[in-house]
Amino acid sequence: MIELSRKQDGSNDTETFARDVAEGLSQYPKTLPSRYFYDAAGSRLFQDIMALPEYYLTRCEFKVLTENRQEIVRHFANDSFFHLIDLGAGDALKTKILLRELDRQQSAFDYVPVDISGDAMRQLSGSLQQEMPAVSVQAVVGEYFPALEWMHENKPERKVVLFLGSNIGNFKQAESIEFLKTVCSYLNSGDKLLMGLDLRKEPGTILSAYNDAAGVTAAFNLNLLRRINSELGGEFDIAQFQHYPIYNPQEGVMRSFLVSKKEQEVYIRDTGRTFHFDAWESIHTENSHKYSMQQVEELSSACGFRIETVFQDEACRFADVLFTVT
Length: 326
Ligand SMILES: C[S@@+](CC[C@H](N)C(=O)[O-])C[C@H]1O[C@@H](n2cnc3c(N)ncnc32)[C@H](O)[C@@H]1O
Hints:
By secondary structure, this protein is α/β, with parallel strands linked by helices.
């Protein structure tokens, strides 16, 4: 396993976390970056979310990948060795559908999962060694771009990139174009990207997926404050905040907030500062964009990709789109 977590400016992960938290909580309106959701507890809670009855995304993508695995793998493997790079791999529950098929067909490839969560990468490496010992795995712990930079230097062969789970939806529109352009800049003509995208649908269905009856998504969102308490010496009283998600069907954006139930001051030791919250003031913690197929086409042509094939479930709730670098 490769760990790329040291920052180029010499700061360590905790200092960067403290700086990002101080910056986000000093803004008006307040924000916190969603990438900090995934400590060990956050990764476990996200696994629970994926099993929820309301969270259709994982089930739909699981079905799309299962039903189309042979065709997808046929597009990946063209008789030459390739690196299968899984950005934000997590527990790779759905990637394993493709890995099993590649393993079954004895394709020539290695698997390079990338994630900022070291815990997730340790668990995944262990589980793959048990389940698919013939598959060569080299997990990378780090942010997407340093990992792509490392691969550019160390993994010279043909590349197939996975970006599953509608992770792209967490970026704002301009950021997603920048992100995909940067991914494309690390690839060569003919390399591929398989990206999961949650499609626009009945708004109530989308809202329920982020506001489940059992309160697991609420616990996931509030875990961000717990993480600030345990890693940065924060003094958040978690019971004084509530999870609040809203879906805007015109923009196609699901947004999650943490709302302060009262006026309060919160000291965070590692920022050296106290932050003031008015009663019912919110912290914006996550965006999840939902796409029309027209937007997917616009995204691909803006970023140097061509759509090769679209795989969808029969109710058109979720798409896994295969792009080729032009
Ligand atoms: C929503 S989960 C998706 C997991 C899996 N790909 C799936 O489809 O089920 C997002 C994963 O991306 C990782 N992640 C989030 N931001 C990241 C970043 N900037 N660089 C690397 N990994 C990141 C998280 O740790 C988490 O495991």
